[in-house]
Give the backbone structure.
Amino acid sequence: MADIDFSEAFVEGMLKVRLESKRNEIFEKIELLAFVPEMGSRILPESVARRFGREVRKVVIDPFDIIYRYFPEEDLVFVEGLLYQREAQ
């Protein structure tokens, strides 16, 4: 099981999420990443690739994208950010 760590950008992004049910859904998906860290897509919008690099992955929780990086050698999932999908064009 991978460890999970969060960036300040992710914490700030969570401030955009007003519904507790949506916050719970986001954290449930992140908890799943501990068990299946490579489940996220590497098909990224160009703006996400420019901002975070091509090695990140994304997981969709409509209307958000969770952006994260997996470090297999440390077995670490680092959650980089939470973006509205419309921001990630």
In short: The beta strands are 3-6, 57-61, 64-71, 76-84. The chain has a mean pLDDT of 95.
